[in-house]
Amino acid sequence: MPDEDLTKELIEGPDKLIEVIEKKDIDKKDPLSYTKTLKTYLFDNEINATILASDKPNANKFSGIVEWIGDRRDDEKGSEFFIRSRSEGKVITFGINNVKICNYNPQKRSFKIIQNPVTCPVCNQPILPNQSTITCPNCHVVAHKDDYLEYLKMKGECPSCSAKLTLKGK
After folding, report:
1. Which one of 40, 102, 129, 161 is most buried, by most CB atoms within 10 A?
2. Residue 1 binned pLDDT confidence (cut-offs 50, 70, 90)
């Protein structure tokens, strides 16, 4: 069975994504099993994911087991995955601006997601799937967490929208 393009469903959110996966899973001996808490799906089955920073042959990648899929915390359209690799667990946020394609293989229960390269507004370097990021609460720009916080300490504002921000509570 060929991979299915679920890019649209990934961007629509976890409810739509799970609905489509369940339809693809209908004749499996081991049907998809999860616990839904609000809009987060915690999986009992093993679902694998490989996230590539771009479609270039040597693109940085992050792979592991998807433990949960949920709504984005910034209330933007899209989904968040919590992926556990051998060495770490990481929340990766997907939306219209950073997903090029999301393929799902129902036989293997695995995602392959290729991201559009996103550049940090502070250091102008690509943000890789395994790097810690932070999002501006005002304009939702994504940046390397350490770069953004250092910029915020020095300037007191977002490097993208210039909103006045503080480190209070960080």
Report:
1. 102
2. low
Across the chain, how many H-helices and E-strands are there?
3, 13
Report d(CA 84, CA 21) in Å as an integer.
20
Asked if 138 contacts 152 with a C-beta cutoff of 8 angstroms, the reply is no
- pLDDT at residue 170 tops 80: no
Tally of CA atoms within 13 A in the half-sphere of 13 that contains its CB: 11
Give the separation between CA 164 and CA 157, rounded to whole angstroms: 4
Q: Where are the domains of the chain?
A: 4-116, 118-170
Neighbours of 58 (CB within 10 A): 7
Per-residue pLDDT reduced to its tens digit, 121-165: 999 998 877 788 888 888 888 899 999 999 999 999 999 999 999
Q: Which CATH class is domain 118-170?
A: alpha beta
Whole-Å CA distances, 8 to 12, 46, 101, 147: 6, 23, 9, 31
Measure the CA–CA gap between 110 and 104, rounded to whole angstroms.
Answer: 6
Q: What is the pLDDT of residue 2?
A: 80
